[in-house]
Design brief:
Number of strands: 18
CATH class of the largest domain: Alpha Beta
CATH architecture of the largest domain: 3-Layer(aba) Sandwich
Distance between the termini: 68 Å
Strand content: 15-25%
Family: Belongs to the peptidase S10 family.
Number of domains: 3
Structural class: alpha/beta
Number of helices: 21
Radius of gyration: 24 Å
Helix content: 25-40%
Keywords: Carboxypeptidase, Hydrolase, Protease, Signal
InterPro entries: AB_hydrolase_fold, Peptidase_S10, Ser_caboxypep_ser_AS
CATH superfamily of the largest domain: Alpha/Beta hydrolase fold, catalytic domain
CATH topology of the largest domain: Rossmann fold
Protein name: Carboxypeptidase
Bound molecules: 2-acetamido-2-deoxy-beta-D-glucopyranose
GO molecular function: serine-type carboxypeptidase activity
Shape: globular
């Protein structure tokens, strides 16, 4: 049964999209609250809806590459996680051309990914952000989705995109995403790989991704936990030993859990919760809202990042304002306030981030396999798969992601062993530094700092890479925008993040040759090369004399 208003809206949208070239009615002509460049919008943006299925209207936003079209810039799709998180977070809180600066302002991002590619985001699935479904149109109605329906919906939205923007047909195209998009991205990549979508598919990249229950969760590498607290200095070695050996048990799904059966253990765990800012609410009473407001001192997405900030509220206020809604052509959306997943009922179907707090005992996902199945299928059949993880992310910890990728059993590419990569820390503009919030780009500086450690990279055969991002939490482009832009650019241009490291040669050298003895040895030469413009900047290689 369809509401008459729904039919009318659908027909109108259908008529409106039957135009050649980019849909002019979706062109964003101004963006409220730009605090730099006299409020002038400098980037080509589109925003509107795709009629992705007869019952789903998906909000998209396209930020076009800030490059001469003759350079034929590639296109990426970005998907946020959750489930229920909106990809507008990526656009306005991570890598987009404008980053939220307060509840009613945005600041130009000099490290935007649009410097290298056109970026499409989808608020996905429907029920997230401005995207809506037919069920939502009746009072109290919500959209129902699962991993399968979400991947299918995203594929349909991509088809609508190519229809609406025919000038993108045949472009190089890669899918990127974060967190629970560790499920959304490979499942969609699998469909794109099998489809006749008119884009040149380059593969996918996921950051801090839900990938495998076995290696991430049951390996105790998901969510802030005892091992993480110990290895990152939140608790003493003595406490760790007692809690692990005397006061822990395995719960019904094999996950390490507190054992409160003796008064001594009750005390040990209470002290632990005090030391770890209530460990993200994983205490016997669950999450205390009052404590969450006032008592938290560890950022559960980045243990070294500023904690407790209003970053998400700023975005919500900004996107909910009538002026912004009008500018983005989303006023037709039934939601009063833009939000994340309040209108979504989601069923996870895979063994990836399935066992969350409160999962009913004995619950099993529909499919008894994790994302590594798809990695095994696509590795070597798509041009590249890059998995990255912030190394100070308590939520999806890099050791678990590393173990998951390692379990694919791929050989290491020649010279591709675990080695550091570097990015050049330029000075940020005073406009950006004055206007940005502390919650984005917290390590940026007005003064340039030269080449800095970006993290570590391991390259496998079949064009699979695992990359860590040093001192970054869960949202890599938010915490490390410069390093993230370099990583993004190197992946898109299919360039190595770091020079090959020849272990045969390292083994064969004398100490004097390796360490240098009054001269530059292999060690120094290698590091200088890794820090050179060729590797630590974008386009640096072209300027180097050959
Ligand atoms: C997944 O979601 C779709 C859309 O709501 C629904 O049609 C389908 O039955 C669901 N699949 C399962 C296994 O629940
Ligand atoms: C893997 O990367 C190499 C080097 O860039 C490329 O030549 C090859 O075609 C890629 N493999 C696939 C399956 O595209
Ligand atoms: C690595 O070093 C060895 C020994 O110097 C050399 O024979 C080999 O060609 C090198 N491999 C590469 C890929 O450069
Ligand atoms: C290092 O250099 C000094 C001075 O040239 C020399 O005496 C010494 O033997 C060298 N050491 C090695 C290990 O080559």
């Amino acid at each position: 049964m369809r509401a008459p208003t729904w039919v009318a809206a659908a027909i109108l949208a259908l008529l409106a999209t039957v135009v050649s070239g980019a849909p002019e009615h979706d062109k964003v002509t101004s963006l409220p609250g730009i605090v730099t460049h006299n409020g002038e919008l400098q980037v080509s943006l589109y925003s509107g809806f795709f009629e992705s299925t007869p019952t789903d209207r998906v909000h998209y936003m396209l930020a076009e590459a800030e490059l001469d079209p003759s350079n034929d810039p590639p296109l990426i799709l970005w998907l946020q996680g959750g489930p229920g998180a909106s990809s507008m977070m990526g656009m306005f809180q991570e890598f987009g051309p404008y980053i939220i600066a307060s509840g009613d302002s945005v600041v130009r991002n000099e490290y935007a990914w649009t410097k290298l590619a056109s970026v499409l985001v989808l608020e996905s699935p429907t029920g997230v952000g401005f995207s809506y479904c037919q069920d939502q149109m009746s009072p109290g109605g919500k959209c129902h989705h699962n991993d399968t329906s979400t991947a299918l919906l995203n594929l349909e939205s991509l088809k609508r995109f190519v229809e609406a923007f025919p000038e993108y047909e045949g472009k190089d195209f890669m899918i990127w995403g974060e967190s629970y998009a560790g499920v959304f991205v490979p499942t969609l990549a699998n469909l794109v790989y099998e489809s006749d979508l008119k884009l040149n598919f380059l593969g996918f990249s996921v950051g801090d991704p839900c990938t495998s229950e076995k290696y991430q969760h049951l390996g105790d590498q998901l969510h802030f936990n005892l091992g993480y607290a110990y290895h990152n200095g939140f608790i003493s070695a003595t406490s760790y030993g007692r809690l692990l050996h005397d006061c822990s048990k395995r719960d019904w799904n094999g996950n390490l859990a507190p054992d409160y059966s003796t008064p001594q253990c009750v005390l040990e765990w209470r002290v632990y919760f005090l030391q770890t800012s209530n460990n993200d609410g994983q205490n016997p009473l669950g999450f205390d809202v009052e404590f969450g407001k006032t008592g938290k001192f560890i950022n559960t997405f980045n243990n070294y990042g500023p904690n407790g900030g209003p970053f998400d509220t700023m975005l919500r206020d900004y996107l909910s304002s009538p002026e912004v809604k009008e500018a983005l052509h989303v006023s037709e959306a039934p939601v009063e306030r833009w939000g994340m997943g309040e209108n979504l009922v989601y069923t996870k179907e895979h063994l990836a981030c399935f066992y969350e707090e409160g999962t009913p005992q004995g619950a099993r996902p529909k499919f008894d396999w994790d994302m590594l199945e798809i990695y095994r299928k696509l590795a070597g059949n798509v041009p590249r798969i890059v998995v990255f993880n912030g190394d100070t992310d308590p939520d999806v910890q890099y050791r678990g992601t590393e173990a998951a990728i390692e379990s694919l059993g791929l050989d290491v590419k020649e010279g591709g062993g675990w080695r550091p990569w570097f990015f050049t820390a330029d000075g940020a503009s005073s406009d950006l530094m004055e206007n940005k919030t502390p919650y984005w780009g917290e390590l940026l500086s007005l003064k340039p700092a030269g080449p800095q450690l970006g993290g570590y990279v391991k390259d496998y055969e079949k064009n699979v890479s695992f990359v860590t991002v040093h001192t970054s939490g869960h949202m890599v482009p938010q915490f490390k925008p410069q390093a993230a832009q370099l990583l993004f650019g190197k992946v898109m241009m299919n360039e190595d993040l770091s020079p090959p490291m020849n272990e045969t040669e390292i083994a064969s050298l004398s100490d004097a040759e390796f360490f240098g003895n009054g001269t530059k040895g292999y060690l120094t030469e290698w590091i200088l090369r890794a820090q050179s413009a060729e590797y630590s900047t974008l386009g640096g290689g072209e300027e180097e004399p050959h």
